[in-house]
Amino acid sequence: MFDGFIEETKKGAGADIFLRRAGPAGAPALLMLHGNPQTSAMWHKVAPVLAKNYQVVCPDLRGYGRSGKPPSSPDHKPYSKRVMAADMVSVMKSLGHDRFYVAAHDRGARLAHRLALDSSKSVIAMTLLDIAPTREMYANTTAEFAQAYWHWFLQTQNAPIPENIIGADPEGFWKLKCFNQAGTNSLFHPETLNEYLEAFRDPSMIHASCEDYRAARTIDIDHDNADGDRRLETPLQVLWAKRGAIEKCFEPMKLWQSRASNVTGGAMDCGHYMAEEIPDAIIEKLTTFFGAHAQETPL
Questions:
Q1: Are 108 and 34 within 8 A, CB to CB?
Q2: Measured CA angle at 265 (ends 262, 268), to 5 deg
Q3: Choosing from 44, 76, 105, 272, which is the catalytic residue?
Q4: Helix, strand or coil for residue 22?
Q5: CATH 2.40.40.20 fits 6-296, yes or no
Q6: What is the pTM of this model?
Q7: I need a surface site. Which of 65, 109, 119, 176 has the fewest CB within 10 A?
Q8: Are 82 and 112 in contact (CB under 8 A)?
Q9: Which tens digits make up the pLDDT trace of 81-121?
């Protein structure tokens, strides 16, 4: 599925990061970040097409897949989006990319939001798939949202409560969460599904993914609050699923306009796993948006 892609591991800012990459030398760089509980394999329908015109880099996030899973701390800092974003900046610099585009889904999109805030000179333009800002989602939580995104509230519980629950049947948990969000049991390609499930059987990934959620509820919001009134200046495209909780429970464009100065986008006719359900539409959206900002690519 990733024919012609190099698979390798690079040093992040405190964790070894596994990645897949391909694309013509001299082309602009594109960093593609996956969501939970997945791996870089989620881009298998999108990345090979984009690699014709971009130097595409698809990493497994810290704590996920084949990337490192360093110990956490009581404040969850090692899994804060600030630290996870620093991994990505380090990896991209090691590949010779000081500036790059970003496409990100789910948890990866939360990391990307922080990356663009902390390293604004690195990001030319960015597309985020099926999220609203983390702080605002928690602040506007309703019973309807809690019912739809029950895993948000399970995985933030103190260790080892969620680890023990999930670890009793990792495959069952993964399928319950992801098949329900997808609205079908057949969306995921068998090879990617095998990769997701194999990775999620690792107790260290289960723990790391819970730390990711614990950080989102605590230290990540502290970092957002410390920003004060500062807004994201990076050109931003936000796309969300018309058949998902973001559309149903929030006003995503309004929330993003409160956090970013230059934002466009809208709902798409799909479920949460957008890149796997409607890859052609996602490719078109990414290509058009990044092409509109091609003049900002460094020579």
A1: yes
A2: 165
A3: 272
A4: strand
A5: no
A6: 0.97
A7: 176
A8: no
A9: 999 999 999 999 999 999 999 999 999 999 999 999 999 99
Pairing of strands 55-59, 263-268: unpaired
The single residue listed with the structure tokens 């996956």 is 34
Confidence of residue 298 (pLDDT cuts 50, 70, 90): very low
User: Alpha-carbon torsion 87, 90, 94, 100, what sign?
Assistant: positive
98 is catalytic: no
Active-site annotation holds for 106: yes
Q: Are 105 and 33 in contact (CB under 8 A)?
A: yes
DSSP per position, 98-143: SSEEEEEETHHHHHHHHHHHH-TTTEEEEEEES---HHHHHHT--H
Distance, in Å, from the CA atom of 72 to the CA atom of 82, rounded to the nearest integer, reads: 14
Domain boundaries, the chain: 6-296
- Give SS3 for 278: coil
Of the residues 87, 106, 130, 212, only one is catalytic, namely 106
Q: In the predicted model, is pLDDT for residue 299 greater than 50?
A: no
Cis-peptide, bond into residue 160, ω within 30° of zero: yes
The whole-angstrom separation of Cα 157 and Cα 31 is 31
